[in-house]
Amino acid sequence: MAQTVAQPTATPAPLPLKAIAPWAVFFGILMLVLLYFVGAEQGATAVVSGEDVHEWVHDARHLLGFPCH
Amino acid sequence: MNSATVRNLLVRGMLAGLGAGLLALVVAYLLGEPYVDKAIGFEESHAHGHEHEVELVSRSLQSTAGLATGVLVYGVAFGGIAALAYCFALGRIGRFSPRATALLLSGCALLAVYVVPFLKYPANPPAVGNSDTIGERTTLYFLMMVLSVLLAVAATLLGRRLAPALGTWWATVAAVAAFAVVTGLAFAFLPVINEVPADFPATVLWRFRLAALTIQLTLWTGFGLIFGELAERVLAPRPAGAARTAAPAAH
Q1: Taking phi first (over 0 means left), then psi (-120 to 50 degrees means alpha), and beta for anything else, what does residue B129 get?
Q2: Which chain B residues contact residue A3 at CB under 8 A?
Q3: CA A43, A48, A52, A56: dihedral to nearest 10 degrees?
Q4: In chain B, which residue's Cα lies nearest the Cα of A9?
Q5: How far A4 CA lies from chain B's nearest CA (Å)?
Q6: A68 domain-assigned
Q7: Do A58 and B62 make contact, defined as CB atoms within 8 angstroms?
Q8: How many angstroms separate the CA atoms of B19 and B174, rounded?
Q9: Tens digit of pLDDT for each residue in B203-218?
Q10: What residue of B is the nearest CA neighbor of A38?
Q11: Where are the transmembrane segments (chain A) (predicted)?
């Protein structure tokens, strides 16, 4: 395949995987924990007892598409 | 240096997620809440007596502060995850500028994270859904979401593999087709859930689901545009003088 004009958009250089990995692991898990509390806590499973978390984010849970009671 | 770039992108991703979350919150409040209220009205007129004992959080709080908490945390969390995915995708998925990469990634995330799971297990308003099956429904929804994201990543890697042999165009077509076929198989084999009460108003359900889809469309489009702009500034800083005067001119 012929390479066309190489200039119009500058393709950024890839970031090395080793530089991404520690951020991805630590913040990836942290973000998933946040999503768990918005989307599923006190529904099918519960870390905190009671219904307060569920009731507080109730409307968001329905409107963001998560299964809710 | 590179680690600092990842950190900068991550922070900007979470901020862009917060901004996009604010836009989505406005849409959720204006388009979604009326149908949540209608569904709760239906639920209460059909209550079997033992359903509602004590109201822990009032409706006026649920539909404002509660909704805002949920949508904004969702925006920040997905903003962070999308920024990390962006670090992997940047410069690896073809010849796209930082801004174009951000919008492309957002579009794919909208499909993989929301639209594909939604087609099998759509959003339901209050009164739709049996509380005895919450465990099963939660498992299936998250399974569908994880599966769809993994398949999207696999399709991207497949496209990259095929590109040298087929060319970018046909490699992309083949990868998307593979994604569609495997997703279709998952739809066919995963269990069906239909817990809509027989006399639930169809228009309320339809409007609620359209609103849910619009919220996500707003969130991910907003994220793509805001994060794209921030990422462009991190990755391709222009000379200080030129950037100020010629800011609106885009590629």
Answers
A1: left
A2: none
A3: -70
A4: B97
A5: 12
A6: yes
A7: yes
A8: 35
A9: 999 999 999 999 999 9
A10: B70
A11: 20-39
Report the complex ipTM. 0.89
Q: How many Å apart are CA B77 and CA A66, to the nearest integer?
A: 15
Nearest to B186 by CA among B149, B133, B147, B159: B147
In B, minimum Cα distance to A58 occurs at B62
The per-residue pLDDT for range B100-135, each reduced to its tens digit, is: 999 999 999 999 999 999 999 999 999 998 888 999
Query: Can you give the residue range of the structural domain that contains A44?
Result: 36-69
∠ Cα B175 B179 B185 (to 5°): 145
Angstrom CA distances, B145 to B72, B111, B117, B138, B139, stand at: 20, 10, 6, 11, 10
Query: Residue B15 contacts by C-beta under 8 Å, 6 or more apart in sequence?
Result: B79, B226, B230
* Residue ranges per structural domain of chain B: 1-46+60-128+199-243, 132-195
pTM, two decimals, is 0.90
Query: Total domain count for chain A?
Result: 1
Residue A30 counted as domain residue:
no
How far apart are alpha carbons A56 and B64 in whole angstroms? Answer: 10
Nearest to B67 among A14, A59, A67 (CB): A59
Higher pLDDT, B171 or A42: B171
**Which residues, including other chains, have CB under 8 Å from residue A61's CB and lie 6 or more apart?**
A38, A39, A43, A54, A68, B70
Q: Tell me the pLDDT tens digit for each residue of B51-100.
A: 555 678 999 999 999 999 999 999 999 999 999 999 999 999 989 999 99
Question: Tokens 């994270």 appear where?
Answer: B113
| A11 found inside a domain | no
Determine the distance in angstroms separating the CA of B40 from the nearest CA of chain A, rounded to an integer: 11
